[in-house]
Amino acid sequence: MKVAVVGATGLVGSKMLQVLAERNFPVTELVPVASERSVGKEVEFRGMKHKVVSMADAIAMKPAVAIFSAGGSTSLEWAPKFAEAGITVIDNSSAWRMDPAKPLIVPEINADVLTANDKIIANPNCSTIQMVVALNPLHKKYRIKRIVVSTYQSVTGTGVKAVTQLMNERQGIEGERAYKYPIDLNVIPQIDVFLENGYTKEEMKMVKETCKIMRDDSIRVTATTVRIPVMGGHSESVNVEFEKDFDLDEVRSLLQSSPGIVVVDDIINQQYPMPMDAHEKDEVFVGRLRRDESQPNTLNMWIVSDNLRKGAATNAVQIAEYLLAKNLL
Length: 329
Description:
Blueprint: E1 2-6, H1 11-22, E2 29-33, E3 42-45, E4 48-51, H2 55-60, E5 65-68, H3 72-84, E6 88-91, H4 107-110, E7 120-122, H5 126-142, E8 144-153, H6 160-171, H7 201-213, E9 220-227, E10 234-242, H8 248-256, E11 261-263, H9 275-278, E12 284-291, E13 298-305, H10 309-325
Parallel strand pairs: 1-2, 1-5, 5-6, 6-7, 8-9, 11-12
Antiparallel strand pairs: 3-4, 8-10, 10-13, 12-13
Helix pairs in contact: 1-10, 5-7, 5-10
């Protein structure tokens, strides 16, 4: 299968190439795509060098699927052109997520909505993906009323520039900055721009995307998203109120038996999920499971996942795997 990766030279694009190789996706020909200034550069895939091509050249090469990670404006301009050429686009930006005509997919939850006519498929926000993977089995059993989430997000979610800023600050080097403020030895309670309601765009993504993916607009969500000086993945403190009461042992059992989830919840031995343990893994890790003693039917949980993998690259590749398995490509 001919596969294009758009944004192949970026942090997420590079991870997509890695995940495609690791999961043995049947790539017969790779088409790495990037901005004009990167055309002619080489990227490595399965031990071989591949020359980066332009958007127009990639369309002319007619790949079966194009996995985009090149930013919202690029996706808005080019995804329809790929789709018009009969190429299925899996887009990692926020450009199409809330378009009612475009499916927003986490394969463990709602891949069943996909059809061969879906030529632009949206990959959700990294923070949303890990949360809904952990919450979906519980929603099926107890029905979620309300979610209060606070995130602790890795600098890798911003990109190479942010990683460089963090490393430069650790070494006392002046350099280009991704953030207005220092990130080392600091916490920045802002991810993306502020909106009129006082929330950031990232916070509102979590609110809206959760309802769309879980196909339930009655779920109320409120979020605070925070950037912290870590690398391995995003962490989330989630307080979830259900319509029905639950048994903690049953909650653990439901999570343990759900695909893509690993429960790490042994407080006697101080075992709980951390970004350094989630790094380079595809699963969503859940721990610190405990009843909220301040009100009924409410659970506290801690969710960690590698934002570049399940939060981006792996989820996109899993969508492609599903399409392939169902003969939708």
